[in-house]
Amino acid sequence: MKKIAAYLFFAIINLTSYAQLEYGFKPQEAKEMIAICNSFTYLNLYNSDKKILPEGYKKEYTSGIHGMDNKFQVYTKGKIGVINMRGSTDKMMSWMENIYSAMIPAQGVIKMQDSEFNYVFAKDTAAAVHAGYALGIAYLSESLLMQIKYLNALGIYNFILTGHSQGGSLAIMLRAYLENLPSEVISSKNRFKNYVFAHPMVGNKAFTDEYNQRFTFNNSNFSIINPADPIPKLPVTYADGKFFSAENINTYFNNGTIDKQSILMSLFMQKYEQTVSSYVQSISQSLTNQIANELGSVKMPTYVEDINYKKVNATIELNPFEYPKILKDSSILQNDSLMAIYKRGSDGHFLDKRLYKKAPTLFQHKPHNYYVALLKKYFSDEYATLPKKYLDENL
Question: Are 52 and 42 contacting, i.e. CB atoms less than 8 angstroms apart?
Fold first, then answer.
């Protein structure tokens, strides 16, 4: 009986080690992931991320700089591993990665110096992906695989992939890459789930349809965006095919209002798609040459003609971030004559909006604002007691 009991004990432990992730959107998980995404911001601004990291997570590894100024972190919490991909930095090379938006086939080979990156991001031969993000994964892949195998050796096979902005796009590309690797390269026991925030699009309709079918529709991929954030609308996307088809109707209408920008983009692209495609490819080729000058020779697959990006499904929308009332000239408060002229509302704020500063261009994109907005939507008590709802640097 003792032998049977011991066998059952170790069997349970073994099964627990290999248990699948619990799929589905979990607000607590989303909160923890956007907090982890803020690690890079806090380290950059304050040299410490202790105030933002969620409890229970241990930072196991921080990579060096790879390729186009990319970097990632590895965390663990029990039998869950987290890979956090860094977003764009202020380095020119990082922005080249974003702008490098010509599409390449979702299957192929990228040659870099003396190495080759053989990749499959989708099984559909019509699928195509963002060249810059594909190259980003190419530079990161060896180090990422090494960390995953290291955690596998510790009995960790459940992973959450996350990232904000460019980091979110790379997390989607990483998921697509890992899920298409053969079992002799990566263990088939691994299970993945994505929480990605404020990310640009990464592929065409064929890629997105396959990604949705395999990962989004099984509730293991979640894209959290702020509709007022311009970055998730990039790169170019437009309605193709029959102009007012059922497939395109959601592109033109958003919450009952007409999206004039999408209609104008669709009309423009139907007329000038070939010209725009040639221009995008020309810019991308120039970027390839600049990247090669910095990092060594790079040979990319032949570009595809498609430049129409599509969003992945399972989008969770947060409310647009409210910019605080900051007077352009605070001395008005000490000027009795001006105070008599400018009327104020019941909340004490001036009714004339021209007196207040406008939000910076990328205020709606900042990772800390995503964190605060998620608290406001799902954790009202935590939001109410949050000591600082804005980072001064974002104002």
Answer: yes
Residue with tokens 């049977």: 4
Both structure tokens of 124: 């559909």
Give the tokens for residue 377.
């939507």
Using alpha carbons, select from 246, 270, 300, 281 the residue that is nearest to residue 108. Answer: 300
Please choose, from the candidates 282, 278, 287, 33, the residue with its C-alpha nearest in 3D space to the C-alpha of residue 136. 287
DSSP-derived secondary structure for 313-337: S-EEEPPPPPPP--BS-GGGGG-HH
Q: Tell me how far apart the alpha carbons of residues 215 and 217 are, in angstroms, rounded to a whole number.
A: 6
Q: What are phi and psi of 162, to 5 degrees?
A: -140, 170
Which residue segments constitute the domains of the chain, with CATH numbers given? 13-235+304-323+363-394 (3.40.50.1820), 328-358 (no CATH)
pLDDT at 200: 97
**Are the C-beta atoms of 371 and 38 separated by less than 8 Å?**
yes
DSSP state for residue 89 in the 8-state scheme? -
pLDDT of residue 221: 96
Instruction: Divide the 395 residues of the chain into consecutive groups of 10 and give the mean pLDDT of each group.
Output: 48 46 94 98 97 97 97 97 97 95 97 94 98 98 98 98 98 98 96 98 97 94 95 81 51 54 58 67 87 94 93 91 91 85 88 91 96 98 93 92
What residues does 193 pair with on adjacent strands?
Answer: 160
**Per-residue tokens: 176:** 């697509």
332 neighbors 338 (Cβ within 8 angstroms): yes
HEC string of 172-228?
HHHHHHHHCCCCCCCCCCCEEEEEEECCCCCECHHHHHHHHHHHHCCCCEEEEECCC
Tokens of 205: 């309709």
> Scanning the structure block, which residue is given the tokens 């894209």?
223
**Structure tokens of 134?**
């594909």
What does the pLDDT read at residue 253? Answer: 54
